[in-house]
Amino acid sequence: MNVNISGIEHSLDGRMSPDLQAAFHIYAAHWRKVDALWQYPEHTHPMFEINLVLQGRQQMTVGGQAFIQEIGDILFIRPGIRHSSLGTDSGDDMAYYCLHFDIDDLTLRRALLTMNAVSLSGDSPVQQAIRSALDVMISTAILPEAADAQRNRLVTLNASLQLFAALSGWVLAELPAASRSARPGITENTVALAHAVEGLLQESVFTAAATGSRGGGIEDIAARLGYSPNHCNRAFRHIYGLSPRQYLSDLIIRHAKLMLLDNSMSVEAIAHRLGYRDVSHFSKQFKRWTGLPPMGYRQLTEESGQ
Question: Which pTM value belongs to this model?
Fold first, then answer.
C-alpha cells in the first residue's frame, strides 16, 4: 500500500502562502505630563516615532513643517527626519505619549519609509485602529508598579501586535500613492538590486541554519550579482534605510533566539549551525545584541515559561 506522505498525490489544486518571519522592537515608549516651560530640542534618530497628545496642545516641528497637536492628534515621524517640540502654546500643562519602533520586515519597512503623511489623526477605520492600540499601551504604562507585571506585559504585547496590524492596514490603504512616491535616486534597477541582496542575505542565513556553512556576507553577494560591495550597500540602504550588515545581524539574532528555545541543541551546536566557527565569538556577539549571553537568554525563557 502506497502512503501519500507529501500530500501532493491525488491533489487537484492548491496554493502556498508565503513563509513569514518578522521581528519588531518598541523603544522608549512613555507617557509624560509636563508644565508650560517644557520643550524638547531638535534631534533625529534611526527609528520610527509615533507621538500622541493626551492633554493640552503641543507645538511640534517635523521636517521643517510646524504642527499644532490638539488632544487626540497623532504624528508619525520617519527615521532621520529632524523634529522638535516647542512645548505647549496654551500656558497650561500638557500630557503626551511617545513611542519609537523599528521592524525588520523589509517590505513593511520600505513601505513605511515612503509614507509622506505626518498626521495620522482622523476618524478613518485605519486611524481608529492605530489609536485603539495606542490607548491600550497607554493604559498599561500608567498602571501602578504593584500591578501584575506578567499580565501587563502580555496586554502590551497584544496591543503592539494590533498597532503593527493597523500600520500595515494604513500602508495597504495608501499603497498606490506610496508606490508612486518620488524619492531622489530611486530607479527600478536600484529596487531590483536591493531586493536581490535581501534575498541572498536571507538565503545565507537559512543555508547556514541547515548546513552550518554561511557565505562571506555582502562581499560574496556583490560578486554573485556583478556589482561592487559599495554599490550594493548604497542601493540596500537607499531602499530599506539600513545597511545589509545590520539586516544580516538581525536575521542571525532572530534565528539564534528561536534555536535557543530548543533545549536539545547546545550553544556550540547553534553557533556552528549559524556559521560561526568560534562559539565564543557567537556568544560575545549575542550578548552585545541582547545584553545576555546565550545561556542567560535560554534560562530567562525557561523561567518565563514556568
Answer: 0.70
